[in-house]
Every structure is written in C-alpha cells, then in structure tokens.
Amino acid sequence: MKITDVETFVVATPPPHRGGRVWIFVKLTADNGIHGYGEVYQVPFHPLTVARMIEDFGETYAVGEDPFQIERLWRRAYYGEGYERLVAHQHPDHAVLGVLSALEMACWDIVGKALEQPIYNLLGGRYHDRLRSYTYLHPDPDQRPRRSPFTDPEQAAASATACVEQGFTAVKFDPLIDVMGNKDPREPPLDRLDNAEAVVRSVREAVGGRCDILIGTHGQTTTSGAVRFARRVEQFDPLWFEEPVPPENVDEMARVARHTTIPVATGERLATKYEFRLLLEQQAAAILQPALGRVGGILEAKKIAGMAEAHYAQIAPHLYCGPIELAANIQLDTCSPNFLIQESIGRLDGFHAEILERPFEWEDGFIIPPAAPGLGVELDETVARAHAYPPQ
User: Smallest Cα–Cα separation from 188: which of 218, 165, 148, 167?
Assistant: First the structure.
C-alpha cells in the first residue's frame, strides 16, 4: 500500500466558534482507495499557509510511502530528510510538529481501516470502556450584558451548576484570565486575587462534592503569584492547577508544584517526548496535557503516556480545536491505563457533531469510545467544503 494523494480542508467554524475559529484537516488517500484524516492544532501561520505547508510536507514525506511505516515517516520528517538533506530540524518546532501530527494521525486512520480495527486495539487494546470528560464554563449566550463565568462569581456558580445538571462531573475555568498579558508573566494584584478566590469559592459552594474544579490558567502569573493564588484556593480542593506559569521554564513550574498540594497540569504548548521528559524528571507536573495535533501525533503521545506512567503521572489530553484531534485523543485515552479525564467542547454537539458523518457518543459526563476502525469517525466533506475558509 502506498499513499498517493494529500488533500486539505480549511474550515471556518460558525458562531460561537467553540474550539476555535478555524479548523485545518488533512486527508491522505492510498492506492487501494482507503483514506485517513488528521488535524493540525494551532500552527502559528495564516490558515491557508498552513494548508500549503501540509501539502508540501505530505508530498515530501508521505506520498509514495507505506502508511504502516509511521515511525520511519515521523523520523524522516522530524530529522529533516528530503530537500537534498540540506535542512535538519531535530527540534520540537510547533509548525513542523503540528503538520507532522496531522499526517501521522491520517496514517494511523488508514492503518486501522486497512486492518478493520480501531487504533486503540493496535496500541494495547481497550483498557477503558468509558472516558470521563470535562468542559470549560461558558457564558449564557442570551444574557445581556454577557458576564464571564471566569471572573464573575455569581455567573460562575450558575454556569457550573448548569454543567452538573447536564451530566458533567468536572468543569474548568480561568479565574485569573484578566491578569493575562501578551508578554511576560505578571504578579496578580491583590484585588484580582480576591476576585479569583471568590470565583473558585462560588463554584465549590454551588456544586459541592458533585463536581471537580479544574483551574485552567494560561501561564499568566509569576511563580510567586501562582503560589500566592494556590494557597488561597487549596481549601476548595481543585483537581489541578493548569499552567500556573509559562511552560518554557520547567524549573519555575517545578517550584510551584513543590509549594502547593494542588496537582500541576501542563502540556498543551509542548511538543515531542523530549520536552515532556524534562517535565517529568523535574517533577514539575503530575498531569500531562498533550495536544495530539501538535505534540507529534498518536504514537508520540502514547510514548509520552508510557513515560508518565513510569512517574505515576496521569494524562488528560488537551482539546481546543476540531473533532479529528478529539478522535485521536479518544484512541489514546482508551488504551492508556493512566488516563485521567478528557477535555471536551460541551457535550460534543453543535458543529463538532455536524461536521462528522456520525457524531461522538456522549452520555452522563462520559465519552464512549467508538468501535469503528481507524479513528472511528468520518469527516463530512460536504459540510467541510460548505464552511471553507475564508468564509464567503
């Protein structure tokens, strides 16, 4: 079997744009007609440029190759073979790894379909029959003026209660989001700390013991600011403290971890086993959140999950994009004993369901892993083309 064709889909999502405003998919087709899908997560270039990058990489490293030889394809692309061997990447570059991740997913999808098996059966088997999921708190779209459940204690409680009533047993929010800058991490002022503590308290009082609290910050504070905030909210027993500081300085993240009883979670902005290795060795995080559309794909994420297992760390794959990356996450989650919880976009309905030929199965706060071969889902290409970017 050889890969013969690379096609991209750049999709403009409709409002409210949950999961991002643009999703980028790739479709690889083999000479026997079997096709597979992959998805890129936030490559930092214009969406149409990213599509061209996927086509270029696909033509260079995938076309003419056997989709079963995933390790070989991955290493050729990562180490920079091709282009007359003039370029050696060999670095966790987000652009290269995002594109490579999408191609790798698509290869796995082809392999699973060729063998008539879901990918998780090829990576150890179905360990989990159900996958616990969580969602971000979202504002009430009908409320005017709209109040953020991240920073408004009353709205946070109402939104969390609504999620529990839908079946969720965990919710995530960023009570320090208004501290976020676009440059260096900041020391949160006292009034912001007071308000953030009030938000967390309000959610805990609203949901009691029915729901875990996931504090999903975005690396916007200094180490000292993160420690000060963590000490305030430890009493509310959050399940994790996500990216308490920017992920680029593992030593400082480890310092936060040493000063709080709240488990530290991180990983969406990291790529390859090499960056996660340092995180585990420094004991900087107890919960790893690889984004499979950036980290290097399914096999790379499985290697990271194995490394985490040896350190008694758990995985909770990140998701803020489209349903193809989620399908890859589900395959990894299902076969990983140290899976903790899966990020989802609400109940995986809305456009996440509309763009698939058959939506994910979600019930009572859990995702049910599909038994279909490959990724277990099929992109509805008619819907994808009808929402082509840029929107008309």
Answer: 218
Count CA atoms within 13 Å of residue 23 on its CB side. 28
Sign of CA dihedral 309, 310, 312, 316: negative
Q: Report how far residue 209's alpha carbon sits from residue 159's, in angstroms, rounded to the nearest whole number.
A: 16
Active-site position among 128, 138, 318, 352: 318
d(CA 388, CA 353): 17
What whole-number percentage of the chain has pLDDT above 70?
Answer: 96
Residue 203 is encoded by which pair of tokens?
A: 């959610």
Q: What are the residue ranges in the chain where pLDDT is below 50?
A: 84, 86
Residue 94 annotated in active site: no
What angle, rounded to 10 degrees, do the helices at 272-281 and 250-258 form?
40
Query: Which of 262, 223, 276 minimizes the C-alpha distance to 245?
Result: 223
Catalytic residue from among 218, 259, 352, 387: 218
Side chain identity at residue 283, one-letter code: Q
Per-residue pLDDT of 305-330, as tens digits, reads: 999 999 999 999 999 999 999 999 99
- Say whether 35 is catalytic: no
Q: Which residues pair with 12 in a beta bridge?
A: 22
Name the pTM for this structure: 0.96
230: Cα separation from own chain's centroid: 24
